[in-house]
Amino acid sequence: MNAPIRYLAFAAYAAIGAWSLDARAAPETYRFDPVHTQIWFAASHENLSHPLGRLHVKDGWFHFDPDDIANAKVYVEIDLASVDMGDQKWSDTIRSGQFFDTGRFPTARYTSKSVTPKDKTSGTIHGDLILHGVTKPIDVDFKFNRVGNDPYTFKRKAGFSATAKLNRNDFDMKRFQDVVGQDIELTLVIEGIKDDGAAKPGDAKPDEKKDDAGKE
Predict the structure, then answer these.
(1) Residues near 67 by beta carbon (within 8 Å), at least 6 away in sequence
(2) What is the dotted CATH code of the domain comprising 27-194?
(3) E strand or H helix at 24
(4) Rounded to 5 degrees, what angle do the CA atoms 38, 40, 44 make?
(5) 26, 194 in Cβ contact below 8 A?
(6) What would the pLDDT profile of 8-29 be if each residue is shown by its tens digit?
(7) Domain boundaries in the chain?
(8) Rounded CA gap, 141 and 117, in Å?
(9) What count of other Cβ atoms lies within 10 Å of the Cβ of residue 201?
């Protein structure tokens, strides 16, 4: 192989290699896997215990690059009527006007505004939570677990663990102060399925006012 041909071959291989690196480094969009994404919350019950309740994700997505977590974005809709306290009567009470009032506010929404990395795999999401007709800033601490291909679904997935805290009084849910604690601890188990079309043009942006009742 003469010199010009060797040079062209080297340039071609270099270009292909650079393109491959760029492709791997590009951020990807994932929709929430409703089966493997779980939202658990706990509150004090008369300072005796901290029972758990569960909520389901209705819709949403996150935009993420493992090499650049500072530019991650997330939007999630939570189905408040899905609340499960492990007891039908207590679940109905949480759905009622005494707490969530799902007849008026069926959906909660969280939209990220920025991300502060702590290290290469963890950080804090700063965003706005719309809950019970009230919008408040909420921080979510997260840890990136891994990204890979699911051998059963043949789809690319990303997984996270996360925690957050809020005060229910901030969201105008002030009943039964002597029974149910004000401070709510959230534990989030998150899996996303790669889906380039998951982010919809109508999804709320951090600076965009949307019907706080969650009604379409």
Answers:
(1) 25
(2) 2.40.128.110
(3) helix 3-25
(4) 180
(5) no
(6) 444 444 444 444 434 445 899 9
(7) 27-194
(8) 10
(9) 4
Q: What six digits make up the tokens of 150? A: 């699911």
Q: Are 46 and 179 in contact (CB under 8 A)?
A: yes
Q: Could you tell me which of 177, 168, 107, 172 has the C-alpha nearest to residue 138?
A: 168
The total of other beta-carbon atoms located within 10 Å of residue 148's CB is 10
Of the CA atoms within 13 Å of residue 127, those in its CB half-sphere come to: 24
> Token pair of 9, please?
């071959």
Q: Report which of 190, 109, 210 is spatially closest to residue 144, judged by C-alpha positions.
A: 190
All residues at 6 or more sequence positions from 172 whose CB lies less than 8 Å from its CB, including other chains: 132, 133, 134
Residues 6+ away with beta carbon under 8 Å from 194: 28, 29, 30, 155, 156, 157, 158
What is the rounded distance in angstroms from the CA atom of residue 184 to the CA atom of residue 50? 10
Are 187 and 109 in contact by the 8 Å Cβ rule? The answer is: no
Closest CA to 32 of 153, 195, 193: 193
Calpha distance 41→103 (Å, rounded): 21
| Each residue's pLDDT tens digit, 75-111 | 999 999 999 999 999 999 999 999 999 999 999 999 9
